[in-house]
Amino acid sequence: xxxxxxxxxxxxxxxxxxxxxxxxxxxxxxxxxxxxxxxxxxxxxxxxxxxxxxxxxxxxxxxxxxxxxxxxxxxxxxxxxxxxxxxxxxxxxxxxxxxxxxxxxxxxxxxxxxxxxxxxxxxxxxxxxxxxxxxxxxxxxxxxxxxxxxxxxxxxxxxxxxxxxxxxxxxxxxxxxxxxxxxxxxxxxxxxxxxxxxxxxxxxxxxxxxxxxxxxxxxxxxxxxxxxxxxxxxxxxxxxxxxxxxxxxxxxxxxxxxxxxxxxxxxxxxxxxxxxxxxxxxxxxxxxxxxxxxxxxxxxxxxxxxxxxxxxxxxxxxxxxxxxxxxxxxxxxxxxxxxxxxxxxxxxxxxxxxxxxxxxxxxxxxxxxxxxxxxxxxxxxxxxxxxxxx
Length: 390
Description:
With 390 residues, this protein is an alpha/beta fold.
């Protein structure tokens, strides 16, 4: 120390000293270190080592720093703490699981079904869940349901899925057939509505025409025309030749302007007689009309019916058409109605639309198609439900 060394080695400097002398030596080393001398002390005393600024351990021939050892020790402590915590957690979880398992396996008191509705005030225990009676099974039939066959007998053991009985499904099968017919009808209606829609979509609009005033046509006089003042009315059966039979009919000679009275026609009807109304020679008449009484209706005795109308055919051709025929006015009205209906159908098929009218018509027809389609879907859904029940 007299030579002021830069490095001072001390091997167990306090090993043979008392504590006071050892303290003094350590204070001296500290003073030298502060003056710039490096002091290396070898000691087994931890208290002496803790006085140094740096501690180096030699363990089993290997040199380790004090900080590294301290870190290793800290790591070991943390690992030990973690392992201890895990052990405690596992133990606590096991205990909790065992307790829960024991509680869940607890026994519940069994009571009869008749006691379920009674009140038990002397205990806090309760029973929950669905109460089932496996001794019998009650089947409540709906209105109209009938049981046709029972597949089980008393005290027979059954399992899930076994058939117990069969219902009468005749009415359900009838309902299925009716639903099928209804669906078929709706399908036909839907096809028709779609065809109308396609026709409208392929229709070309026309330009809107200016409105023209409608001039009412003069109506024909519907009053029956009065017969000509000068005409011949055949009303007396005594004027006829013959006996009124099929082989020998009554023969009346007349003209194109002749009329026959309702009274004479009623007489022919009552006798079921046959009469010939001829123009010209009876054997070779220019015109002829044969009337059969058994095919005549009832006339008013004051009626006067013209025998030969315009367009009447020659003898022999008109006999079958006039036997029991309707009055000519009725035929004319019927023909007029048929012609009017035909014209109306033609107009309906050839109806034209402006652009706005066609747009509205397509919109309305689209709505009709959707309505029918919805009806068909609803009917199909009901059909599936009925078919499943059947």
